[in-house]
Write a structure and sequence with these properties.
heterodimer; A: 303 residues; mainly alpha; 2 strands; B: 622 residues; alpha+beta; seven-stranded mixed β-sheet
């Protein structure tokens, strides 16, 4: 999300590489010294103060002139916020920064809590109007969750991938597993059928297997690798140590595979958390647009 | 002889074939390297199967109970025609059987990857949640469609399939769920609760705002007190500034001004409708005479700042006949109107602490509970709800002093009948007819009288004359009782006889007005912390025609209007909106606002019939 068009560096400035420039990067939350946070705060406070200053009789509701004003602002905001989905797919040249859009999206989206809720006049019920409000709140809350994940998880993601040899890429994680699997396959050749079956089960299990809940909680009770380690150790527990036991090597490889899997699964968990909120945020946005249309339509229909 | 060809794939996809030859008629297949066919495959047993050639046939037998596949079928032993060949499968390996000259060829190929991870993976997909959760695009359209069908299409269908409600008071939709009710923006008020399933009773046409004829379907009768709409709009005048803008916007969205629903908003939550807001009153009544030049009403915007002096409906002539035709006129209290009530009653004399009235009260205090002097409550008794006062009853409140006794028989007093002047006359005549004059004690017996006893004779003559004229005394007594100094005349306005000798005295009808201000509400109950005399200057009134009502100035010592004490500084400010005293649909009872307050405080509601049973003027019949 680095801004696309950097101004031409002054001649005296030391030439910097992209990486170093990236280290100066501040996120969409802090963009332009919290410009959009300030704008959204002013907007929210204006709405809050006017809500208390403007005396709508008999009580605040969406159908007063003030309610219609808030509703119009809110509906237009929702439409604009939805446009981030289009904007982020459009790679545009020039000074239009996607970071600015994202920053505005986040903060104006948050101010929608105030605008939308004041629009209701706190009159909620089992109807299409409150449905639209609830969907809006679900979208916003899922967005807040997303921001929280974006703010906290990337650190975990990096530290999880860090190795003594540097960061491990996703491609490298698979390659490590493939390599370990090949070695395991070779090392297990001398094993008797029951032991070989255990190793084979580990080899045949898809490391990316597991349903959504296993992935998001990082708990895989049916892990064949772990089972193979345990079973092989149990089998060996009372066998005399002969030296040069192929099982020693298999055990070592299985342990390495297990720790590699642990890192992979942690990685998957974090990535799942970074993605899962969007699976709520996006569909609920569309449901919200539908409910918003029904809400506005119904108001004019039973005018 | 067997020829074993191990086919391996190079990284670029080309094949490498390693060929070994095994002499003899049998060959072992297994994971151990010692086997003729060595399959480095963990799914294969160390020695998995033995293959023996017998002439044109190959017999393959599993060495342990572990099966293998022949042409896709799992078996533990098989006999294969060498000429026809076959495909065997052990674990992830396939062995194709064929012949080459005399030899049997076994072409070994690994068809399964060593491990799952070794298989091709779409790296962008496997690291994402793809496949684990329903796709974003699908669920987005799914949810959107669901909402549109449930909340838009279904209600429209419901609306279009039942349209028979408009302008019909007694018709409602059948029970059950009607989808368009999910469009309701809030609960209906108590009064309209029964309409909650009948959206179209009010929302008659789609995209047309609620119009008055929908309201008038049911409210033909009770919407009466409203001024005609044109006059109301005149009274409001043309909006200016922001109001003009909102009016313009409303009009462009097909919401014309001056509809019932502008003031009577609905869907504001269950419970009673809200009391009328001062704003709605002041919109018209603030400076109304400039817009509605022919109005008789004073301008009013706020009780504390802009409200005309009260106008009491006083009796301008003595009451004749029944109440309904009482000659009342509303006169501003500023003009100090007089009430022509037919009574003579000096409040000051009766409330004095020092005069004979007070002294008489002290004498009777044991029996009647009077204090050191008479007080208001000794005569004025609050009505059932403490709103006003019941009419003063002569027998109960006056007669202990203003006795109508005229005769004593034994210990019993005979009294004139109050309220029945003809009866009074008759009783007086009967008294003089039937009771002889007091007999002088020196009146002699029937004994012969000696000549010269003059006194005795005189007495007898006087007595005889008294007896003779006894009946004539009645007329005199009647005249006395109705004239100055007589019992009736003391308190009542007496209509003199038609001619000078006649005795047809009449008593002017008495009115005790229980409510002077019909357009506004007042209850004494809410003011019971006050002394009577702090508002009613009875101690200084010497005439019953004095109207002892306090003016607006007195009320404003506490009641400060809607905006509260911020405008007018008083010690104990009571915020008072229009609705505290006035109601649009006013009846004889308390305004809606106070009734709702009472409901919240769980106090019994004061209804019209309870508050002022006698109407405007409870007439004193006696």
């Amino acid at each position: 999300m680095a801004s696309q068009a950097q101004p031409a560096a002054p001649a005296v400035r030391k030439k910097t590489t992209g990486r170093q420039r990236n280290s100066m990067h501040d996120g969409f939350l802090k963009h332009k010294n919290f410009r959009w946070m300030k704008i959204a705060t002013v907007l929210s406070i204006t709405c809050l103060v006017s809500y208390f200053l403007i005396d709508v009789q008999p009580r605040h509701n969406g159908g007063s002139w003030y309610g219609y004003t808030l509703g119009t602002i809110g509906a237009l905001l929702i439409l604009w916020l939805t446009c981030l989905g289009l904007r982020k797919r459009a790679i545009t040249p020039g000074g239009w920064s996607l970071k600015a859009w994202t920053s505005a999206h986040v903060y104006l989206g948050l101010s929608l809590i105030v605008i939308g809720t004041l629009h209701t006049g706190f009159q909620l019920g089992w109807n299409v109007h409150t449905l639209a409000w609830s969907l809006m709140m679900i979208v916003i809350i899922s967005g807040i969750v997303g921001i929280y994940f974006y703010a906290t998880l990337p650190d975990n993601l990096s530290s999880n991938r860090a190795d003594s040899d540097g960061a491990v890429t996703e491609k490298m994680m698979i390659e490590q597993l493939r390599s370990l699997d090949r070695q395991l396959h070779d090392a297990a050749q001398p094993l008797d059928p029951s032991q070989a079956a255990l190793v084979q089960a580990s080899l045949e299990q898809d490391p990316f297997d597991g349903n959504f809940f296993q992935r998001i909680t990082n708990s895989y009770s049916g892990c064949e690798t772990r089972k193979a380690i345990a079973e092989l150790r149990r089998m060996r527990a009372y066998q005399p140590r002969m030296g040069d036991d192929p099982l020693d090597k298999v055990d070592g490889l299985l342990q390495r595979k297990e720790s590699t899997l642990a890192r992979l699964r942690k990685h998957l968990q974090i990535k799942a958390m970074l993605q899962v909120w969007l699976y709520v945020h996006v569909p609920m946005t569309f449901a919200l647009l539908a409910a918003l249309s029904a809400h506005i339509f119904s108001v004019f229909f039973y005018w | 002889m067997f020829i074993v060809r191990q086919v391996a794939l190079k990284a670029d996809g080309s094949e490498i074939v390693r060929q070994t030859e095994v002499a003899g008629g049998e060959i072992f297949i297994g994971r151990n390297a010692s086997n003729g066919v060595h399959l480095p495959d963990l799914a294969v047993n160390p020695v998995h199967a033995k293959m023996v050639r017998r002439g044109g046939e190959l017999i393959v037998t599993a060495e342990s109970q572990q099966p293998f596949d022949v042409d896709g079928r799992s078996v533990e032993s098989a006999t294969i025609d060498v000429a026809r060949g076959a495909e065997l499968r052990f674990g992830g390996h396939i062995i194709a059987l064929g012949t080459e000259g005399d030899a049997v060829t076994l072409t070994v190929r690994r068809v399964e990857a060593v491990s799952d991870s070794a298989e091709d993976k779409d790296e962008t997909a496997i690291y994402s949640l793809k496949g684990l959760l329903p796709g974003k695009r699908m669920s987005a359209w799914g949810f959107a469609l669901l909402v549109l069908i449930a909340c838009l299409a279904w209600p429209i269908y419901t609306w279009s399939s039942y349209k028979d409600l408009a302008y019909k008071e007694k018709i409602s939709r059948p029970a059950g769920f009607h989808a368009d009710t999910m469009w309701s923006s809030g609960k209906l008020s108590l009064a309209h609760k029964t309409l909650k399933n009948d959206c179209q009773s009010c929302h008659v046409d789609a995209f047309v705002s609620v119009r008055d004829n929908a309201c008038m379907t049911c409210h033909q009768k009770d919407a009466g007190p409203h001024a005609p709409m044109a006059r109301q709009l005149d009274a409001r005048g043309d909006p200016t500034g922001f109001a003009a803008f909102t009016r313009f916007v409303a009009a462009s969205f097909n919401k014309p001004a001056g509809r019932c629903v502008e003031c009577h908003t609905e869907h504001e939550g269950a419970g009673a409708m809200e009391p009328t807001q001062q704003r709605f009153c002041a919109e018209c009544h603030d400076g109304m005479n400039t817009r509605l030049t022919d109005t008789k009403l004073g301008n009013a915007a706020d009780f504390g700042k802009a409200h005309p002096q009260f106008q009491a409906a006083v009796l301008v002539r003595p009451l004749v006949g029944d109440d309904a035709k009482a000659p009342r006129k509303r006169i501003s209290l500023d003009r100090k109107p007089k009430e022509n009530n037919g009574l003579k009653f000096p409040h000051d004399m009766h409330l004095s602490k020092t005069n004979g009235v007070a002294q008489m009260g002290r004498r009777l205090s044991a029996k009647y509970g009077f204090g050191d002097a008479l007080e208001c409550k000794d005569c004025h008794e609050p009505d059932k709800n403490n709103v006003g006062f019941v009419a003063v009853d002569m027998e109960k409140s006056c007669a202990m002093c203003h006795s109508l006794a005229f005769d004593k028989i034994g210990d019993t007093y005979r009294t004139l009948r109050h309220g029945q002047p003809e009866q009074v006359k008759a009783d007086l005549r009967a008294f003089y007819r039937s009771t002889p004059p007091a007999r002088p004690i020196n009146l002699g017996s029937l004994a012969r009288q000696r000549p010269g006893v003059v006194n005795s004779r005189r007495t007898a003559a006087d007595y005889a004359r008294a007896v003779n004229f006894r009946g004539g005394r009645a007329d005199q007594a009647i005249r006395q009782v109705f004239s100055r100094g007589g019992a009736c005349y003391d308190c009542h306005v007496v209509v003199p006889p038609s001619s000078s000798g006649a005795l047809d005295f009449r008593i002017a009808p008495v009115a005790q007005t229980s409510r002077y201000m019909e357009k506004g509400w007042f209850t004494h109950d809410a003011h019971d912390k006050e002394e009577c005399t702090s508002c009613h200057l009875a101690e200084k009134s010497s005439d019953a025609s004095d109207l002892l009502l306090p003016g607006i100035k007195d009320c404003r010592t506490c009641h400060v209007g809607e905006t509260g004490a911020s405008l007018i500084k008083v010690k104990k400010p009571v915020e008072s909106t229009c609705a505290m005293c006035h109601d649009y649909h006013a009846d004889k009872g308390a305004p809606w606002l106070l009734r709702e307050q009472d409901k919240k405080k769980k106090r019994p509601e004061i209804t019209a019939s309870m508050a002022h049973p006698g109407g405007a003027a409870a007439r004193l019949r006696r």
